[in-house]
């Protein structure tokens, strides 16, 4: 488990001071994939680098599996850091070393016997699907392959935690998805805790269990991804979701031009309910009609969800009864303004 308690980070001094993090608390459970999303300058990199103390917080405590990292001396910190792997946006590979040697590097550093290194590197090459590429140099690899080397290197010391600093931001969408799938597989296989920072909601939606939204150095909203994604509370979260779905403008146009006085209603279906005929059965009973203004079906991690924006047509009483019946059957119903 990772616990950050009242973490602040101030860069510089005097009138050149920048407060990157201010009094931030965060708890990340063992085996979770925890995403931290925020705009540029929100404090994401500073936050993730405070977890392994690549950046020392100005105040506050960092606890990992019951060890207070912020209290450790240099030697102990070096030892504890082996339990925390990290991958980077620009991979940070040694360009003059082969793929094999890049992966072997942390093992050699910790004095692992040669025969064990060979065994481990081969195991890791297979894990990340690069068995045929051990003797190549980073310049001979694609971006996705470079990140696979980064992941293998980070896993060499069998860490409990993997920190991902914008690990897919330099990759195209297809490669991004293959790297996210690899991270998900590794999380399942080793029950590895993964903390990732990103500015892309898609990354959060694809693999994270929990999400925290960071803004101006503080967490403004957090929770299970389905809760935050489907019922965002903070304007910054809403903004991320709107950008991702790219639907904000068209909804305004649709609701502005549609005839009739009734308000649009957003209906959210989660899990198996996504594929059930709850809406059609309900309106048949209550006798209202509806027009669909917008709709989408997608998944959050592996859970399907649907979101429909509709305008009901019928008497006020019948529309009200429809909303109540939908809510009773476990759908989330929100009358939009
Ligand atoms: N080494 C530094 N010295 C001074 N200020 C810094 C330093 N690193 C970061 N900052 C400042 O701290 C704030 C948070 O920066 P940080 O890099 O953590 O944000 P971020 O969310 O990761 O942004 P981005 O997505 O653009 O990388 C910013 O105002 C930034 O200018």
UniProtKB/TrEMBL annotation:
Location of the ABC transporter domain: 2-241
PROSITE patterns: ABC_TRANSPORTER_1, ABC_TRANSPORTER_2
Organism in which the protein naturally occurs: Paenibacillus lacisoli
InterPro entries, sorted: AAA+_ATPase, ABC_transporter-like_ATP-bd, ABC_transporter-like_CS, ACT-like_dom_sf, MetN_ABC, MetN_ABC_transporter-like, NIL_domain, P-loop_NTPase
Protein name as catalogued: Methionine ABC transporter ATP-binding protein
Molecular functions per Gene Ontology: ATP binding
Alphabetically ordered keywords of this record: Amino-acid transport, ATP-binding, Cell membrane, Membrane, Nucleotide-binding, Translocase, Transport
SMART domains assigned to the protein according to its UniProt record, in alphabetical order: AAA (SM00382), NIL (SM00930)
């Amino acid at each position: 488990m990772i616990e950050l308690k009242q973490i602040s980070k101030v860069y510089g001094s005097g009138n050149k001071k920048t407060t990157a993090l201010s009094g931030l608390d965060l708890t990340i459970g063992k085996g979770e994939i925890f995403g931290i999303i925020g705009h540029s300058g929100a404090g994401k990199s500073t936050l993730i680098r405070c977890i392994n103390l690549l950046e020392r917080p100005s105040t506050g405590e960092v606890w990992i599996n019951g060890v207070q990292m912020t209290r450790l001396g240099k030697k102990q910190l070096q030892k504890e850091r082996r339990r925390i792997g990290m991958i980077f946006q620009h991979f940070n590979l040694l360009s003059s070393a082969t793929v094999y040697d890049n992966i072997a590097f942390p093992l050699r550093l910790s004095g692992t016997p040669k025969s064990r290194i060979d065994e481990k590197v081969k195991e890791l090459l297979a894990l990340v699907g690069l068995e045929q590429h051990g003797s190549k140099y980073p310049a001979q690899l694609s971006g996705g392959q470079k990140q696979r080397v980064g992941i293998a290197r980070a896993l060499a010391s069998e860490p409990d935690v993997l920190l991902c600093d914008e690990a897919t931001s330099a990759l195209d969408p297809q490669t991004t998805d293959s790297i996210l799938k690899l991270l998900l597989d590794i999380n399942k296989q080793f029950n590895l805790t993964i903390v990732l920072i990103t500015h892309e909601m898609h990354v959060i939606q694809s693999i994270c269990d929990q999400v925290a939204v960071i803004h101006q150095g503080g967490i403004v909203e957090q929770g299970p991804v389905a809760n935050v994604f489907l019922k965002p509370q903070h304007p910054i979260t809403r903004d991320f979701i709107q950008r991702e779905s790219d639907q904000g403008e068209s909804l305004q146009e649709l609701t502005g031009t549609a005839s009739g006085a009734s308000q649009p209603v957003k209906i959210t279906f989660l899990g198996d309910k996504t594929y059930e005929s709850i809406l059609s059965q309900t309106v048949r009973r209550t006798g209202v009609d509806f027009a669909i203004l917008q709709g989408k079906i997608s998944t959050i991690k592996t859970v399907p969800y649907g979101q429909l924006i509709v305008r009901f047509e019928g008497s006020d009483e019948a529309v009200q009864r429809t909303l109540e019946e939908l809510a009773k059957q476990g759908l989330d119903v929100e009358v939009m303004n």
